[in-house]
Structures are given as C-alpha cells and as structure tokens.
C-alpha cells in the first residue's frame, strides 16, 4: 500500500548539478587544477559536499582541509541559488499536485544542508506540498547508506515498504533499496551518466510518474 513518496532534491526537484559543478570549479582552479571535469563531479552526485572535497583533496593533493572547502563550497553554492533565476524541473509541479490530490504524503530527503533545502523549497513556493524534510545533517551515515530514507519514513510514521523514493543518482538509488523501499530512477542528463539499474523502474520525465505507477510499485506489481 502506498503511504508516502520521498523526494531527493538535487536533480529531482531542481536541476542543481550544473550549479554545483560551477562553484566547485571556481574553487578548485585556485589550487592550479585545470582538468576538473563534469565527470569528476558526477561521481559524488547524491553524496555530501564533505565526501566530494575529501575525494578531491586526495586525488589532486590539495593543501587544505575538507572542512574548509565544504564551508566555502556550501556558501558559494547558497549564494548562487539566491542569485540565479531558475525554477523547478519541468513536470515537478504537476507531479506534486497529482500526488497531493490523492492524499499521498510527501517528504524531502536530501544530502544537502537544511539551509539549502529550505531555500530551494521556499524559492519554488512548494514548501506546503511536503510534511517536512531531512538532510545529511540529521543522520550519521549518508547516502548510499539507507539512514536518511529510514529517518524520512520515521518522521512520517510510515513503514519503509509503503514508501516510494524518487532519485536521480546511483548512491541515492542504493540508499533507497537498502532502506527496503521501492525506487523510481529519474534519468537527469545533467546529473551525469548515473547507474540507475538497481531502481525498480527508470523514467526520463516526471510526466511518466502517476498514481497508478506509484501504487503498483508498493504492491510489488512491478518486478525488479
């Protein structure tokens, strides 16, 4: 039985990965790195900024700390979100309305910070669709671990097997599956060539997600 839909944010609610990459590129260029490609960023899609900078420090031998770059990167990204004029991913608003009109509950579970999530939901005026949000700051282990999705289910007081997660990243799909939830893989080309093969179904647009599909997933009518 379908009780809740859990939304990832980056790449599902907003097309954020190009903005992430731009802010990272500006920072890493200061250290003399000239070959930081979108593919380097794509490996960390769905994970914490801390994990990204830890990996890049090791790869490029950057003379700094993950903590320092995380603070700088998050600040630069938040400023970019405030300044740029953009809206939600195409098809998101009709999807939210379809789900809400059928009385299905929704929550956001994102590796982004609480400040970041709130800023995006407020910017798009979609806060009222969701019963709350959980972030990487609320759990000890982030995606691909299942903790953030399990916390989302606990926040709504619903069983994991009655939840469907919408994810655009390999690490997020793995987290959803490990949480015992059904997962829709949303193919967002701006999120890089993500391996979504473990998702129960893959879609290329939010228009392909309707109540029938969501309900069929939770009664296991679609087999992985």
From TrEMBL:
Cofactor(s) in the UniProt record: Mg(2+)
Keywords on record: Carbohydrate metabolism, Magnesium, Metal-binding
Xref: InterPro entries: Beta-PGM-like, HAD-like_sf, HAD-SF_hydro_IA, HAD_2, HAD_sf, PGP-like_dom2
Family matches, as Pfam families: HAD_2
PANTHER family recorded: 6-PHOSPHOGLUCONATE PHOSPHATASE (PTHR46193), HEXITOL PHOSPHATASE B (PTHR46193:SF18)
Family under the similarity heading: Belongs to the HAD-like hydrolase superfamily. CbbY/CbbZ/Gph/YieH family.
The protein, known as: HAD family phosphatase
């Amino acid at each position: 039985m379908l009780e809740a839909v859990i939304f990832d944010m980056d790449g599902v609610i907003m097309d954020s990965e190009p903005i992430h990459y731009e802010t990272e590129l500006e920072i890493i260029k200061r250290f003399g790195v000239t070959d930081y490609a979108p593919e380097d960023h794509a490996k960390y899609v769905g994970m914490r900024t801390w994990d990204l900078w830890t990996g890049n420090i090791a790869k490029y031998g950057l003379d700094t700390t993950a903590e320092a770059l995380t603070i700088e990167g998050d600040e630069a990204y938040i400023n970019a979100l405030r300044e740029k004029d953009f809206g939600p991913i195409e098809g998101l608003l009709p999807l939210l309305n379809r789900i809400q009109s059928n009385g299905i509950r929704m929550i956001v579970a994102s590796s982004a910070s609480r400040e970041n999530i709130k800023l995006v939901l407020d910017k798009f005026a979609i806060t009222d669709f969701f019963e709350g949000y959980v972030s990487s700051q609320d759990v000890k282990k982030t995606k691909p671990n299942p903790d953030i999705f399990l916390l989302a289910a606990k926040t709504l007081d619903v069983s994991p097997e009655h939840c469907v997660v919408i994810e655009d990243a390999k690490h997020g799909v793995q987290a959803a599956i490990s949480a015992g939830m059904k997962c829709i893989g949303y193919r967002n080309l701006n999120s890089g060539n993500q391996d979504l093969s473990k998702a129960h179904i893959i879609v290329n647009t939010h228009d392909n997600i309707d109540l029938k599909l969501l309900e069929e997933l939770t009664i296991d009518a679609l087999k992985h």
